[in-house]
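User: I'm putting together notes for a lab meeting next week and I want to include a structural view of one of the chains we've been expressing. I don't have a solved structure, so I'd like a prediction I can at least talk through. The sequence is below, exactly as it appears in our construct file.
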Amino acid sequence: MDDFRTWHWLETVIELGGLKPASERLHRTPSTISHAIKQLERRIGVTLVETRARRIQLTEAGSILLEHMRPLIRELEGVRGVIEQFRDTGASVMRLAVDQVFPHDRLIQAMERFSTDFPHTRLELFETVLGGGPALFRDAEVGIYLGLEPVGDHTGVQVGRVRFVPCVGPGHPLAREVEAMPAGQLLAEGQLRQHRQVVLRDSHPERGANAGWLGAAQRITVDHLHTAVELMRSGLGFGWLPEHQARDESDLTVLPVEEGLCPEAALMLYRQRELMASPAHQCMMESLVDSSLG
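Assistant: Thanks for the context. Below is the predicted structure for the 294-residue chain, given as structure tokens.
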């Protein structure tokens, strides 16, 4: 490491044209820099610099060797930047659990903002359903959780509300039934029960519950919201989607149902207490709040 540092000092001396300007940039005395270069020359057995017209210049060998060292110097500077970030933020890896109901585009927006401010911190995202996120949070597997389920005695920040609406693909019998209904007529719960429902499996490892209204006897249970949407689109069943996502699925029909059938829940954001002072986790929290549903 000392040799790499000295090569960096030598590069700075040559770039700035002398020991004095290099010492001002490097915050080292000229004698310290000069001594380090001489020590390097002794260790490798090659003369790197010479003085001509009272100006330090590279020897031919020094010029060739420095050219080979420059890529390594750049890599070392990059590693130092990583070290400084980890020392200042204490976060080399950011682990967060986000319920699948949170819009993907807004999640990506938050992650992009975070990555700009903390480029060296690795991100590990857990896409959860219902109790999966709180379970990871309680086990300290993640530092941040964003979702619909409360987490024990932790106090969260509400970042929005999610309303769920029933949706079907264009070829589903319920879609045709809606087309034939008089304007203003609504579907009752009993009419939904007659059709197969697509539901999400709770990602909590010890739970058997599923996400969404479970009135239908026939069900298809899946792990991911994207799979559920594709099944609805195919006409294999109806399902409940976050209202904001249903608006983006132009080929799905939102079923008009009686009042009180559409569930609604608060979207909450939690952070581990011991991470309250972490600048990286604070940045991620702010990024998720700014990208939230409002």
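A couple of points you could mention at the meeting. Residues 99 and 128 are 5 Å apart (CA to CA). The domain at 161-265 is CATH 3.40.190.290 (D-Maltodextrin-Binding Protein; domain 2).

User: Perfect, that's what I needed.
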